[in-house]
Amino acid sequence: MSLEAEVRRLKEERNALLLAHNYQLPEVQDAADYVGDSLYLSRKAVEDDRPVIVFAGVTFMAETAKILNPGKTVLLPDLKAGCGLADSITGDQLRTWKAEHPGAVVVAYINTTADVKAESDYCCTSSNAIKVVSGVPADKEILFLPDMFLGEWVRQKTGRKMHLWVGDCPVHAKLRPEDLQRARHEHPGAEIVAHPECGCSTAALPHVDRILSTDGMVRFAEETRAPEVLVATEVGILHRMRRLNPGTRFTPLSEGAICPYMKQIDLTDVRDSLRLNRYVIDVPPETARKARRALDRMIAS
Ligand code: 13P
Ligand code: SF4
C-alpha cells in the first residue's frame, strides 16, 4: 500500500482530522483535509468534530488547537517543529514587561507559547492583527508581541501607539528592503507580495504591492492575471500558488527562505503519528483556561 493510501486508511480508522500549514512539504499539504494559515486552521480545528487532530505545522499551532479543543487528542508528528519567533519571549519576560506598564492591554501574535498566551488579553494572526488592534479601546496603552516587523506594520496601518517587543522570525527577518529593490529591478512588471513578518515589510512598503498573510497570498494567487508574482515569504507556499494558477509565474524573493521547523514533518511522520498516537500535545488546564480567553477573542474577530 502506498504511503498516501496508508495515511488515508489510518485517518479513517482513527476518525482523525489532518491540518497542514501553507509552509508544509507538498506531500503533507496534499494529504491534508485542510491547508491554510494560522487563523483558518484554528477555526477548522474548532468547527470539525473529529476527536483526533493531527497538526502538520509547528508546536504553537498544535498547542492552540489543544487549548481550543480540550476534549480532543491533538498530535504533533515531530516535537522538533518549534518556532524561532515563539521562542523570542517567555511567560516570565512578559510578566516583567507588563509590570513596567500597568493597565496596558497585551496583544500577542499567535506565534507564542501557551504560557505567553495565558498572560495576554488578545491573540491575533497576520490576517486579523489590524482588526484586533483597532478593536482595543482607544484610551488603552498596547503591548504588542513578539514580532516587531508585524507590530510596526500594524502600528502604521492603525495609527495606534504601541510598545513593540523586539522579536522576529529568523526566516522572514532575512528578507530585507535591498532584496526587494533588487527584485523590482530584475523583474520589471512583476507584482510583489510580502508577509508582514518580513524584515522588508515596513521599510520597503513602497516597493511592495500587497502585504498579506499566507492565506491572503493564496487568494491573491487565484485571482491575479499578472505574468509574474514575486513572493516574499517561506517557500512552502509556492506549491499551492502554482497549482491554483498555472498561468502566472510565482518566484520566491529568496530561494533560501526555508523554515527548518516547518520542514520537520514528512508524510512518514504523519503516518507514524496516526499509527503510534504520537506526539500528544497537552497544555496544563490553568494555562489553557487563561490562554483560551485571548484565543476566543481572536477567533471571534
Ligand atoms: P500565517 O498565519 O500568515 O500563516 O503565518 C504563520 C507563520 O508562522 C508565518 O511565519
Ligand atoms: Fe516561526 Fe518563522 Fe517558521 Fe513561521 S516561518 S514557524 S514564524 S520560525
Notable traits:
binds 1,3-dihydroxyacetonephosphate; 4-stranded parallel beta sheet; alpha/beta; Rossmann fold; 301 residues; binds iron/sulfur cluster; single chain
Topology readout:
Blueprint: H1 3-14, E1 16-21, H2 26-31, E2 34-36, H3 38-47, E3 52-56, H4 59-68, E4 73-75, H5 91-100, E5 105-109, H6 114-118, E6 122-124, H7 129-134, E7 142-145, H8 148-158, E8 162-164, H9 177-186, E9 191-194, E10 210-211, H10 214-223, E11 228-232, H11 238-244, E12 249-252, H12 267-276, H13 285-300
Parallel strand pairs: 1-2, 1-3, 3-4, 5-6, 5-7, 7-8, 9-10, 9-11, 11-12
Helix pairs in contact: 1-12, 3-4, 4-13, 10-11
Task: Give an account of the 3D structure.
By secondary structure, the protein is α/β, with parallel strands linked by helices. The protein folds into 3 domains: 102 residues, NadA-like (Rossmann fold, 3-Layer(aba) Sandwich), CATH 3.40.50; 79 residues, NadA-like (Rossmann fold), CATH 3.40.50; 81 residues, 3-Layer(aba) Sandwich (Rossmann fold), CATH 3.40.50. Helix content is 41%, strand content 16%. It is built from 13 helices and 12 strands. α3 runs parallel beside α4 and α4 packs across α13. The model has no long low-confidence stretch (mean pLDDT 95). The structure holds 1,3-dihydroxyacetonephosphate and iron/sulfur cluster. The site of 1,3-dihydroxyacetonephosphate (13P) has 10 residues, from loops. The site of iron/sulfur cluster (SF4) has 13 residues, from loops.
